[in-house]
Amino acid sequence: MLNEIENMIEGFEQGKMTRRQLVVRVGALMAAVAGMERIASASGRKPVASTFDAVALNHIALDVTDVRRARDFYQKHLGLTVRRDGGDESCFMNCGEHFLALFRNKTPGMNHYCYTIKNYDPGRAVDKLKAVGLKPRRTSDRVYFDDPDGITVQVSAPNK
């Protein structure tokens, strides 16, 4: 929510909105938050502060037994196009602004999925995950952690 307020103030400072518009928007945001808190209170649930602010599902990565066969399948049936072809080992395919990653593995299934995070910084992401008791794994600018069922989640900047 602080990011939203900061964006509104920045818009005001850049002349993109009037003072009245700023006050109305901040007031509406506060009313929405108060309403959510009342609903949560009435249901016996407390509002949860999130570790990150995910803004999009960035990509999905699948383990496949035959990368070329999978690539051809996704091209033929979903119209995906090749972004980067790694031959028998991997293939990255465009899907609008997002992508599908295919990795060769003996056992097919979900490799991981990735969310685009607002204001992503890998070092801060690792620190935040550790602070909430998760065990992040960092590879270069990529940060991974497991969900409660052991499925790997990645957080990233857009298009990484």
Protein architecture, described:
With 160 residues, the protein is of the alpha+beta class. It has two domains: 2-42; 54-156, 2,3-Dihydroxybiphenyl 1,2-Dioxygenase, domain 1 (Roll), CATH 3.10.180. Helices cover 36% and strands 32% of the residues. The chain has four helices and eight strands. It has helices at 2-13, 19-42, 67-78, 122-131, and strands spanning 54-64, 81-85, 90-95, 98-104, 109-117, 137-139, 142-146, 152-156. An eight-stranded mixed sheet has the order 2-3-4-1-5-8-7-6, covered by helices on one side. Strand 6 and strand 7 form a beta hairpin. Helix 1 (2-13) runs antiparallel to helix 2 (19-42). The longest helix is centred in the first third of the chain and has 24 residues, at 19-42. The protein is extended.
